[in-house]
Design brief:
Layout: E1 8-11, H1 38-47, E2 54-56, E3 71-74, H2 76-83, H3 88-113, H4 122-127
Helix pairs in contact: 1-3, 2-3
Length: 146
């Protein structure tokens, strides 16, 4: 089925940094993230100023029919006007940079929360060696036992 001329379709695979250009990524590495979700691409499009869009979460790209990645369908007139670009590539790059910026901000915020105890903090470091992370009933194995 051919795409209508009055629709612009963006697949989430266009923004996947794990894919090569020949496998379907259409933006530079600086404007892509690993494993983008449809919700994150929608958020990036909204932050770029695009308001008119339709989500199709169960759609799969013709070259990747096994992956239900989802797609965005937008009117090109509105998109070109809002993003002030004249091509689909410019629109994808604008959305991709917003997506990458959000990903970097989230990574920096999460970095502080997941940090372990300081190097010299003996008490804090000893807490990490507890048996709480083991399954119930499982004990430390001694040397020579199986």
């Amino acid at each position: 089925m051919a795409a209508k001329r009055e629709e612009m379709i963006l697949w989430t695979g266009y923004f996947d940094s794990r894919l090569s250009r020949s496998d379907g990524r259409r933006v530079p590495k600086e404007a892509s993230i690993p494993k983008p979700t449809l919700e994150s691409v929608v958020w990036a499009a909204r932050s770029a100023g695009i308001r008119k869009m339709r989500q199709e979460p169960e759609a799969s790209h013709p070259s990747r029919p096994h992956a239900k990645e989802g797609r965005l369908v937008m009117p090109p007139g509105h998109v070109f006007e809002v993003t002030e670009t004249s091509s689909k590539e410019g629109v994808m790059k604008a959305i991709g940079t917003a997506l990458r910026k959000r990903s970097q901000d989230a990574k920096e915020q999460g970095k502080d929360a997941t940090r372990g105890p300081a190097k010299g903090d003996r008490r804090g470091r000893s807490q990490r060696k507890s048996f709480k992370h083991r399954k119930s009933g499982q004990r430390k194995k001694r040397f020579g036992r199986k």
